[in-house]
Amino acid sequence: MVDSQTLSTQDRVPVLISDLIRAVESTESIDYLSEYPENELASLIESVNINYRKKIIDVIPPVKYWSIINLLQYETAKHVHKTLTGSQREERLECITEPDVIMFAEFLPDGFVDDYLLRISTDDAVFIQQALSYDENLVGRYAEPSFLIASTNNSVGGIRKEIAKRKEETIKVVIIRDNSEIMGIVNIESILKFESIVKLKDIVISSSVIDANEDIYEVGNQIPHDGSTNYFPVVAGKKIVGVLPISVVLMHLKEVGLKAVVAENVKSEEDLFTPLLLATRLRALWLFINLFTAFAASAIIGLFDNVVEQVVALAVLMPVVASMGGIAGSQTLAVSIRGIALNHLHQSNIKLLVNKELKIAAINGFVMGALISSIVYFIFDSMGLALIIFCAILVNNLAAAVSGTLIPFKLKQKNIDPAVAGSVILTTVTDVIGFFVFLGLGAIFLI
Description:
By secondary structure, the chain is mainly alpha-helical. The protein folds into three domains: 4-95, no CATH class; 141-257, CBS-domain; 276-445, Orthogonal Bundle (Tetracycline Repressor, domain 2), CATH 1.10.357. It has helices at residues 9-25, 38-46, 50-59, 62-69, 74-82, 86-93, 98-103, 112-119, 122-132, 156-165, 188-193, 246-257, 276-303, 305-310, 312-341, 350-380, 383-413, 418-445, and strands spanning 147-151, 173-178, 181-187, 210-211, 231-236, 239-245. Strand 2 (173-178) and strand 3 form a beta hairpin. Helix 16 (350-380) packs antiparallel against helix 17 (383-413). The longest helix has 31 residues, at 350-380.
């Protein structure tokens, strides 16, 4: 096993993946994973298939579970939680916190939230019910009650005494208010650092005040660049109802941003406002490359020109074969680029992804091939033609799965932006293979 402790966090993940796969295949213990940080375990879970995920969950202590779940993409968290056995679910639900109940209420067991509300204090139960009354995209859903309201003239020493009185409460931030106006906040670290005689007005940090009904995705541009605080005060009307952790905002922004992002360590050739001439040159390069690849697909058709002349139905159906392969490949390409953006796709787990995509392609290729071949048989009354297009679509789907996975990965290794170049190469592969199989089988069985 590689000593991953000496590597950076980004470099540790592929090593962890490699070690995990090797250990599982050799039936070695993976209990060592329980000692790793939550962020690395979350990345590891995102980077392997369901079988490996189950094994990781088996060795993660229940007290770490919800911290890791919070770091996963929401849909991944949902899928992971569904794989738990009954006993595992019970153990982990014993460690759940109020923010976790609010965040993951959608996939918690039926009746759990109601039972949980009966076990906690009335104030906490009211707060959770208030949070769940907001839609999932609104700030009020994620505001936490871990705050204390103070005046600008209060001293640090006085706040310390007040916090000490509330031993059962978790106070993460102090909201400073002057009359009815919120002046800002003071982090608990500052309360502990400054002398008792210091007034809060001297250490207050200006902060945006967020309305509980504001869309959480719109809050991102208000995050302070200097990292001065980790929370926003949240108000409903004129009443302070909680504090919003910036980490929650970032998590939601990450979910949205991943739909279009490419990996930071892959050169992005063009942004929204790249200078006109430079953008034109960059795009022209790939248009010229696409021109040559298009001629490659045309050359395959040219090899079977006599077949196409004799069986006109082949010419009619060629776009169907190309289109199905292109769409299937584009879907796989999007998954791979997403994995690259998240730093989840590496040499150590590329085979896992290829195997998964091949299984998906086999199932979809069989179903869609059967459907299309049935339609072809109905229209052209030719069992041979129907079987040929079935085979072509199935094979092209499999080719699209492999190429859609490997192409962006190889482009990344060459420091070429897969979002720009991937579709060009992928289209060529699916067109060439699709036409070759379709027309080749046509030449063998229809002429």
